[in-house]
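Subject: two folds for Thursday's group meeting

Dear M.,

Sorry for the delay on this. The cluster queue was jammed most of the week, so I only got both jobs back this morning. I'm pasting them in the order they finished. Each block is the input sequence followed by the predicted structure tokens. Could you check whether the formatting survives your parser before we put anything on slides? The first protein is the one we discussed after the seminar.
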Amino acid sequence: MKTKFAGVWATFEYLDDTCAAIKELKNAGFDQITTHTPCARHEIDHALGNPQSRVPFATLAGAFVGFRSGRADHNEDGARLDPAGLR
């Protein structure tokens, strides 16, 4: 069975108005607030009280591992090591 929409739909022209409305709703006791934006805005995340994502830290760790893996198959002169060990 489909559930019907229950709530309020609003559009805002300015980001400050959006954040102010979110804060007012949170102060009024609403805890399930959903927003849709064309691009991610950190101001809205802060107004909603969402914790910071760990994705940037995972990306940095992956970049470091990839860099080290790429450097591991070269010797100190910068020449590529033969994977079969024939040199």
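Second protein, same layout:
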Amino acid sequence: MLHRYDQRLIVTQPPRCRKVPDVGETLKGNNMKTMHCIDMKSPFTGKVNSMFMLFDWVDFIKWKEGRGLIQDCLPYLSEDEREFLKTGYMPEEWGQAFGEQE
């Protein structure tokens, strides 16, 4: 199943989930990563970019609700994926926007 979201999305709990667990809480048999296509408008170019990511919806909800830092809620995503979720910047735009890091 492929889910598509954009940055205007109002996040709600998935219908089968009664309670979103706390950060670090272990769920037995409920964690399921699914592929998602995220659309975000780049603050640098104004262009809408898409990135495919594999993550657990419950982890995403915890982060969107402010129940933990993105690196704690979605630690299995790469730094580039997490940055794209937070800001909309594509990896190749960082060098252009902020200068290359040495």
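Two things I noticed about the second structure. The two ends are 40 Å apart (CA to CA). Strands lie at 2-6, 33-41, 48-56.

Cheers,
T.
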